[in-house]
Design a protein that fits this description.
7 helices; mainly alpha; 57% helix; globular; 129 residues; 3 strands; Arc Repressor Mutant, subunit A; 3-stranded antiparallel sheet
Length: 129
């Protein structure tokens, strides 16, 4: 945790307010958010299916990342009143507008990876539908 008045916090706030790219990367950045967004860009998913599809993510981290994406209005959480409880996640209308950007980032990453490390020639895009 950083103080709200720390130089680091103030610099980050200024950068996010003045640079759309920095703000976008703040929303989608991190280790797990791209994997979550990739899966939800293809289909609505239940929590357990999402958890099982992302190798290595802890329940605590998945919950935290889903909450952040929900607070940023990128994903929607739907709770069904059934026993056992059923929860589904999907992209919101705003989240859907990210598809072209996510597709471009994925394509660039695959191109860069194959250029820098040709042994891992995995050109298939994660976000192709």
């Amino acid at each position: 945790m950083r103080k709200d008045t720390s130089t680091n916090t103030l610099n980050e706030k200024m950068l996010n307010e003045s640079c759309g790219m920095a703000y976008s990367l703040k929303i989608i950045g991190g280790r797990w958010k791209p994997a979550i967004l990739c899966r939800l860009s293809h289909q609505k998913m239940r929590y357990s299916d999402l958890k099982n599809s992302i190798e290595g993510i802890s329940e605590r981290m998945l919950v935290a990342q889903l909450r952040e994406l929900e607070l940023d209005l990128i994903i929607k959480r739907t709770v069904y009143a059934v026993v056992p409880p059923k929860v589904e996640y999907e992209l919101t209308e705003l989240g859907e507008t990210m598809r072209p950007m996510l597709q471009s980032i994925s394509e660039w990453g695959n191109m860069h990876r194959s250029t820098v490390n040709p042994e891992t020639d995995l050109i298939k895009s994660d976000f192709m539908v």
